[in-house]
Structures are given as C-alpha cells and as structure tokens.
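Handover notes (outgoing to incoming on-call)

Open items:
1. Heterokaryon incompatibility domain-containing protein: sequence verified, structure written out, both below. Nothing else pending on this one.
2. Nothing else urgent.
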Amino acid sequence: MTTNLTSLERDVPWETLPKTFQDAIRVSLELGISIIWIDSLCILQDSREDWEEQAALMADVYRNAVVVIAANSGSGAHEGFLNPREGLVDECIVLPDPGAPELYARTAIHHYNENNTDYDFEETLSERGWTYQERLLARRYLSFNKKELHWECESGWNCECGQSEWMDTLDHEFSLRKLCGPGIRKDEAYGTWRDVIVPRYSSRKLTVASDKLPALSAVAQVFMDHLQDTYLAGIWKDNLIESLCWEPKGWKHEARISKLDIAPSWSWTSFLGCSQYGGGIEPLGFTPYSECLEAECEPSGKNKLGEVKSGFVTLRGPLVKAFIGFPTSGVNHGPSIGLWRTDGDDGYPLMSDRMCIFNNDTPLQLEDGTMDAVRSVMSTANMEPLWESSDGDPEGAMAERVAVNTFAPVWCLHLGVRKHAYGEDGYTYWSYALVLGNAPGNPECFIRLGISRIKSKHHFGVFEGSEVAEVTII
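Heterokaryon incompatibility domain-containing protein structure tokens:
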C-alpha cells in the first residue's frame, strides 16, 4: 500500500508475512536464491497506475525468473503450502497363484490436464486466469500440490507419483520458447495462439472480468516479439480474418454474456466463457473470402496489451441479409438458431441441404422482454433454456442485450472456409460467417451476434452471387 511503502522499504517483519509467503521464502533460501518477487508485495495494491505499469512488465519478470514457485495446495495466502500431506497408502494385493510375486497398489493421483478444458480442477491455481501466463512463461516451475511435488522445465517434467511417463507429453510442452520461439514459423505461432492459447486461457476463471486482457498481456508480449504483428484485444491483425472465427465451446454454456465494456464484440475476450476455433477440430487450411481494410484498438491504460477503451474492424466481403428464425421442428445441434436468407418477399433457409449452425455469443432479447421463443426451440432438442426472463437475471447480468423480433433481420459476412479431414480419404469444408446486428446507438456500425458454420463438401452456394460490401464492426 502507498501508506506503508516507506516502512516496508526499510524492512518487512517476518511475523507480519502470511504463511504462504514465509513458506515461499524458505523454499527460495533452500534453493540458494536470496531474492524473491511476490506480486502483492512488489505491486502497490492501492495504486492503479503502479498496477498497470507492473502488469506490462510481467513477461520479463516470469521469463527471467530462476524458478517460479506455485503454492498450488491452498486457496489463500494464510494457509501455506509446506504442510503435512495426505499419505498415499500402499496396499498389498493377494494373488491366487502362490508362486506369483507380491503386488502393491495405491490410490492414483489425478493430474491436471491443460488439454481438457472441462476438467474438474483439484488444484486451485490451475483454474485461475492470472496463473496461466505465470506457468507458461516460467523457465522452471516448481508446484507444491496437495498430494505431491511437481517439477517442469524446458527439458521435461516429473512428479513424485511416477506417472509422468504415462502423461501426454504435448500437455507439458508449456514453454513459450517451444510455442513461438526461434525456428517456429509465423503460421505455426498463429495456429498455437488460436488452437492452444485461446481455449486453454479462456477456460480459466477471473474474479474481475476486466482482467481478461491484462492477465494474458505477458503471453501476448512474447508472441508479439516473435510475430512482429499488431495485437488487437486478443487477436492478431495479420491473422485477423481466421481469428474472427471463434465460437463458444460446447452446446451448453454457463455464461453467454458479451461484455462490450471490456473488449469489442468481435474479440473472443468479450465473451465471458470458454472460446475455441473450429469446434476444437484441427484444420488443414483456411481460405479467406473477406479482407481487413482497417483495424484498431485504443488502450485504456499504460499497459498497451491490456484493457482497451474501444476498438473496431472494417471488413470487405460477401454479405448476405438474413433473419433469425425459431423453427419448431427439425434437428437442433445444441443451442443453434436457424438462419434464413431473404430474397425479395420470400425467404429460404441458408442451410438448404447443408448443415447451418448459429452459435450466438451475444444475448438476444425478444420484443416482449422474454425468451419464450428460445425456450421453445430448446425444448425440441430436449435441453435446458439458454436464459430465463429478464426478471430472473442475477445482478443485472443481462444488461448488454440486443433487441430483436421473432424473425430478426441480421447480416451474414462470409469470412472464409476451413478444410478438415473427413473419413479416410475425403475432406469436409466449413464455411464461417459472422452474424451481425445493428450496433445500439450507432446505426453506421455493426456488432457481432455470433458465428455461423455451414458444412458442405462444396462450401459454395449460400454466398454465391451475394453482394460484396464493407462493414465496420465495434
């Protein structure tokens, strides 16, 4: 705190330190390291200016540390981590063959797996957003877990239980030097950002929603040094078209709220939930059908890779006017809403004989203020409704809404096509389109309502003959 800064610069009484800090100092001294950096001691907790300055330096702090110590066994600073642990009981199993050797077994330790974003985390640090970049940037990572000690470095990793040889090695190639260091092509680094960094980081939790960009800024700094590209609220400018194809992960989402006050609607960082690309399926290539004319984000503080005040992208590509319908029959693939194209006075499904999926990441509100139509379409899929009526929204969580009619006019901008392996010999293509609505209070601009995926081996047809237009999305 600024109020006790002078006294703390003279000395910090040992008895005033929380037990976790004391344990970390003990470990550091045992390792022969006499200097330690603890964020809540080294950053003024009541100074926004100091916090922004220090957050911008996190990449240097964690990259240059001899070792990062993770207190992964407690939920608070006063619990410590050098505590007695639960024993791993060895039990002898008696075999019917008297000539067989004795066989011992013990309870297995369930390791945290970064690849599984649905994992029910046992260790508290592994689910926090801020700790993701701390682990990713570290040259050496020493984690004190509830049941064992865990070590990671650039050469490999190991743990006390001996299961390391069975674990997925890809899951522990965590070093950014391996992800975007020397020898890594730019297209590989872009792919790592989209298909590894985004889903893994966005699956973690943040107490403060506005921390979503600052808590990843150190990782972004490392990628920016390698890519020499412009960073736009979680998206890279030279890879912008493909990077706009993000979508909410899974058919059910705990949070389907876009916070336009922390990031532009086109950025995955505006979505309070886990985001992914291509339904989690690794692509074989991407063909863009739109182009970026202009893109810009304005930082709101001293950390240029942190919070943003505003942002926009101006794109040019095939644009189809459509409307959102709520069909009462047919196959619903999770929380998907049918998109229908408008031609003259008649309309027809965009999907035609192709599958069309609309994953909306912006809450949609009907004119009467209820979500009855959404509940009805969800009931045909035997699933829970996405939202209740506005009266039941906790703490005004549904404040950022986009008002639509039952058949609401929208626009679909064709971003491009992703190619995937299909079966043993063939390929399948997914056309991606941004689903756009009018920006409230700004009729000349659009906001992103969601993403539409249209599956077809011949991926043309829906957007053939459509107008090529320019749109600005905020």
